[in-house]
Amino acid sequence: MLDQYGWSERLQHDFAPYAAQGLKAGRVVVQQRGGYRLITEDGEADAKAASRLMRSQAEMARPVAGDWVAFEPRKPPEPLFVQHVLPRATAFVRKAAGRGLHAQVVAANVDVAFLVTSLNSDLNLRRLERYLATTYESGAQPVIVLTKADLAPDVAAFVAQVRTIAGDAPVLPIAAKRGEGLEAVAAYLEPGRTAVLLGMSGAGKSTLLNALAGSERMSTGEIREGDERGRHTTTHRELVLLPSGGLILDTPGMRELGLWEADSGVSQAFEDVEALVTECRFSDCSHGSEPGCAVRAALESGDLDPDRWASFQKLQAELAFEHRREDPRAAQENKKLWAGRQKQMRAWVKQKRKGPDD
Predict the structure, then answer these.
(1) Is residue 231 within 8 Å of residue 201, measured between CB atoms?
(2) According to the model, what pLDDT value does residue 323 have?
């Protein structure tokens, strides 16, 4: 059973100290508020985490769906007792919604992240950029999945639009209910390989999972007519073993995806913008009125989309804000720096709108 769920030599090595203590290995396949469900060498079983883990101030230390854990066996019907979380190969981390400086693991030990968005009016390139940045930071491979292609008037145009921000990430249009494009998605789900579905409510994640599983594993909801967004249907995180031998993790829709220490991820998601920044004549260029600014030149020539540049700046500012919350002194130093840069950029935009002859 453990082999089917991705057990490996690395995990065997990491588990050795716990095996010496008489503990057993398992993987979290269902995560709910009241506890967990583990897959073990003997099958599935309910479990609870040790109070030491649940009381930890670092929420990242607590078990989540996809985690490999060391548990203390109990006699039925008592639940198993999770004592330790094994080191994670990858971790999808976000800033907890509506909270202060606090990190939250959404999925652990995933190999590929399917970034799911539907081809309706809710298609948002800026949101996809944010998802890409967070996925790169996690260590997983991002794959953009465009659902409901059968309802789109011009699929090729949508795909071309998304590819302008996708970088090296594949872009796969599908129509899950019709079974169209599923082969391309299934190619990333080899036996023992774990994927996670990420996207807003109504994006089609549960429909995609059901199509890949060949059965109704997750409930699906209808799209609201007013804004073409869906109602949240998944209420827990569950790791599903597919007939192909691959594993897929469904997660509740995330209406807020705050970045958490994703500097490297932002750089990967915006490699084209980062390359322009390095071409500026001055290393401390504010991309305002300085001579030799490669960013401003790309904006003027149309090689860089102003919206993509604004998105990059927004994510950089968000990361800088989180860093300053940890270092109050840096907050004061950056306040003057950003004020000056914003003033220069506003002046440049104003001049751009006037034109050379005004």
Answers:
(1) yes
(2) 72
Instruction: Please tell me whether residue 64 adopts helix, strand or coil conformation.
Output: coil
Bridge partners of 71? 24, 82
Say which residues have a Cβ less than 8 Å from residue 246's Cβ, sequence separation at least 6: 186, 188, 189, 190, 191, 192, 193, 194, 195
**Both structure tokens of 299:** 């904006």
Name the residue type at position 55: R
The tokens for 6 are 């991705």
Taking a C-beta distance cutoff of 8 angstroms, is the pair 258, 97 a contact? yes
What is 195-235 written as a DSSP string? EEEE--TTSSHHHHHHHHHTS--S---PBPTTTS-BPP---
What is the pTM (predicted TM-score) of this model? Answer: 0.81
Place of tokens 């985490």: 49
- What are the structural domains of the chain? 3-85 (2.40.50.140), 91-250 (3.40.50.300), 270-352 (1.10.40.50)
| Tokens representing residue 65 in the block | 């769906």
> Which pair of structure tokens corresponds to residue 171?
């872009």
pLDDT tens per residue across span 183-223:
999 999 999 999 999 888 888 888 999 999 986 555 454 54
User: Taking the chain, what is the end-to-end CA distance rounded to the nearest angstrom?
Assistant: 73
- pLDDT greater at residue 167 or residue 58: 167
> Looking at residue 21, what DSSP letter applies?
T
Confidence of residue 69 (pLDDT cuts 50, 70, 90): very high
Q: What are phi and psi of 237, to 5 degrees?
A: -100, 130
Question: Binning pLDDT at 50, 70 and 90, where does residue 279 land?
Answer: very high
Residues 6+ apart with CB under 8 A from 145: 114, 115, 116, 117, 172, 174, 185, 208
